[in-house]
Amino acid sequence: MNQRKFFIAVSLLLLGGSALAQNGYIKFKNNQIATGFIKVHYAATAHEHQVELSLSSNDPNPKRYHKKDILEYAIHKDTFRILKEFYPYEVEQIYYEVIDAKVIHSGKISLLEIHNSFTTLDKGLFEALHDQNPSQVPYFYVLQDIESGYVRGVPSKKGKFREVLKEFYSDEILAAYEKEHGAIHFKDLEKFVVFGNQRVN
Question: Same domain for 42 and 96?
């Protein structure tokens, strides 16, 4: 086995020592992990974004992976889960074949954020469109149950918002939060998820 192949084999197994000199990792569908220098690359011929792994900052032959083969990847302090064939809401026409979701809070229930990079709206229009077509708003939130893999977009409307929370958290957890902090609002979602993860079984 030559030196390059040996290095790849080791980096697929470990997120240790050498990772300190690198900037991230890729976690594949088989749960193997590769560390190195990570960036997102647009493959023009395939018309898709791929995740690129280099073994050094000047690696002449970086490896590129389709996002459909990846569970998550990290670049510096930012981690992204790859959601596939994802319907964020019950409205069937809103669908993402493959989409990156940034991890805001990781736990038994993870809070993810999906960005639409080229969309900007004022607050009023954001709230009006949020539950109708998330592709037209700058971002929207997603809850993910790590054990079951269940994923749902979080609506901003009060009634639907609470319905989705109850799919992930018990009535006891919702009541405990409201006793300490008052009513749960969409703007406080991250605070609630942190609170809830401290209490879920």
Answer: no
